[in-house]
Amino acid sequence: EVQLVESGGGLIQPGESLRLSCAASGFSVGTKYMIWVRQAPGKGLEWVSILYAGGTTDYADSVKGRFTISRDNSKNTLYLQMNRLAVEDTAVYYCARGGDVHNFDCWGPGTLVTVSS
Amino acid sequence: QSALTQPRSVSGSPGQSVTISCTGTSSDVGGWNYVSWYQQHPGKAPKLMIYAVNKRSSGVPDGFSGSKSGNTASLTISGLQAEHEADYYCCSYAGGYTYVFGTGTRVTVL
After folding, report:
1. Smallest CA–CA separation between A76 and chain B, in Å?
2. A101: confidence class by pLDDT, cuts 50, 70, 90
3. CB-based contact A103 B51, cutoff 8 Å
4. N or C: which end of chain B has fewer CB within 10 A?
5. Alpha carbon of B57 to those of A31, A73, B77: distances in Å?
6. Phi then psi for A99, rounded to 5 degrees?
7. What is the pLDDT of residue A100?
């Protein structure tokens, strides 16, 4: 069964850093493109970052230069390193697997990141 | 990277049909046949319903259908049921390596 489980969220102060993890099972993260999506409380979905199987990455303008996506194939885990966090980064962060045709066919349950002083 | 525009809410009675629009630009919705739709129940993760404009994901009932005309994509739910009450988001490939989601639509079953 294909499954994704995020972890690493929590309460953090503005300006600090946090690393989210997304453990995969049922497939290899290194063979699919993977994304991070976030959802601020009561708001819509926002695409955050993508990591292609070949290693290419990209980021939303709102996080470019602060967030870094990566993976560890040996641990079958996707990561999101978040630096210089701001209050507006408060959200549930989801990881998702890329499907065959520019879609996201499997999502984790999400992990909540709260940035507050 | 502006969000695609969706109506804030739509509603219908059981058995009726509702249609949700998703308006973008020629750089996203209008430029590619890569619009997908996601259903999200409160407190849950999104679920893929439609991809590549009009293809149903595995296990999605045929009451869900997608289409596109120009810069606007649409999701139609036919035979509305109580369990269809949820938030729905469109998403489009926007070229390069980027994607953009819609603002989201709350579907209410009256």
Report:
1. 21
2. confident
3. yes
4. C
5. 20, 27, 14
6. -90, -160
7. 83
